[in-house]
Amino acid sequence: MKKMTKWGALALVSGALLWSGCGQPQPTQPSLGTIRLAYVNWAEGVAVTHLVGVILEDMGYDVEKTMADVAPIYTSVAEGNQDIMIETWLPHTHAAYYEQYGDRVELISTWYDDARIGLVVPEYVTIDSIADLQEHRDRFNGRITGIDSGAGIMGASESAIEDYELDFELLASSEPAMTAALQSAIDNGDWIVVTGWSPHWKFARYDLKYLEDPLGNFGETELVQSAARLGFSAEYPEVAALFENMEFNSEEIGSLMDIMDGVPDAGVERAVREWISENEELVQSWIP
Questions:
Q1: What is the pTM of this model?
Q2: Strand 194-198 and strand 105-122: pairing?
Q3: Residues 188 and 245 sit within 8 Å (Cβ to Cβ)
Q4: What is the predicted pLDDT for the residue at 21?
Q5: Could you say which architecture CATH assigns to the domain 115-210?
Q6: What CA–CA distance (Å, rounded) separates 204 from 221?
Q7: What is the CATH number of domain 6-113+224-286?
Q8: How far apart are CA 268 and CA 67, in angstroms?
Q9: Phi-psi bin for 214: left (phi > 0), alpha (psi -120 to 50), beta?
Q10: What are the tens digits of pLDDT across the range 118-128?
Q11: How far apart are the C-alpha atoms of 201 and 179, rounded to whole Å?
């Protein structure tokens, strides 16, 4: 495989920014290979996937992006059908998947180290603990609005319903459907409880709070990591190094999600490049 120096990669990234800013087509570079990225339709994963895709393309790689649920992504990466799973939450949320597939994938990045999951309500809701949900069941219509059924947070929510003896139905949907329901409830001042996680743009947009979890069903602070198929790092050391170097704080990942939220497909690359131009020093620090 043709190797690229740090300064060559930086030149490509900087050159791409310059060309895009001038409205001119980017210069053609020989492809260094095709990198297959798999991601779940969660705001932070979508944002990071498109960011990484632009960086890799500027470094000279072709990129294929595939969106799916967590379970099939783990299977695909473990079987070598995908190169990188952009986002896995450990040690708690995706523990069952990692226990099953961990010996067939390699963790190549921790890109956010202050993640958490739990049940989330608007700030105006006058309870503070999961243990108080049952007493106010009617205000919540006996429902917890969730996301895709294969997500680890859904399993943790099912356990919480059992352990806290809640007569609640956990509604499986999707992240966009969950956030739409949240916004509708807030617009009307209604009580709602949803499956929530950080980082996520909804905490910047709305006044929200996690319900306390005295039984510990949702675990402690977690790491958001990327996992690759076995042998990937040896085959593509520069790409693996990019992931190893990539790290966000809450403000950085929040700004990336915010700039991309609601952007149509045709505008995604422009939004990503705008964020890169505003965080150029950070991005350059990742380039191997």
A1: 0.75
A2: antiparallel
A3: no
A4: 42
A5: 3-Layer(aba) Sandwich (3.40)
A6: 19
A7: 3.40.190.10
A8: 15
A9: alpha
A10: 999 999 999 99
A11: 10
Which residue is it, tokens 């050159």?
15
Domain boundaries, the chain: 6-113+224-286, 115-210
Fold: same for 6-113+224-286 and 115-210: yes
- Kindly report the three-state secondary structure assignment for every residue of the chain: CCCCCHHHHHHHHHHHHHHHHHCCCCCCCCCCCEEEEEECCCHHHHHHHHHHHHHHHHHCCEEEEEECCHHHHHHHHHCCCCCEEEEEEECCCCHHHHHHHHHHEEEEEEEEEEEEEEEEEECCCCCCEHHHCHHHHHHHCCEEECCCCCCHHHHHHHHHHHHCCCCCEEECCCHHHHHHHHHHHHHHCCCCCEEEEECCCHHHHCCEEECECCCCCCCCCEEEEEEEECCHHHHCHHHHHHHHHCCCCHHHHHHHHHHHCCCCHHHHHHHHHHHHHHCHHHHHHHCC
Token pair of 98, please? 């990692």
Greatest Cα pair distance in the chain: 64
- Number of Cβ within 10 Å of residue 226's Cβ equals 27
Q: Cα(168)–Cα(217) distance, rounded to whole angstroms?
A: 16
Q: Whose CA is closest to 107, among 76, 77, 66?
A: 77
Interatomic CA distance for residues 43 and 179, integer angstroms:
11
Strand 84-90 to strand 222-229: parallel, antiparallel, or no bridges (unpaired)?
antiparallel
Q: Which residue is listed with tokens 């915010």?
A: 258
- Spatial distance between the Cα atoms of 37 and 73, rounded to a whole number of angstroms: 10
pLDDT at 2: 33
Are residues 161 and 170 in contact, defined by beta-carbon separation less than 8 angstroms? yes
Q: Which residues of the chain have pLDDT under 70?
A: 1-29
Return the bridge partners of 118, or none: 196
CB atoms within 10 A of CB 22: 8
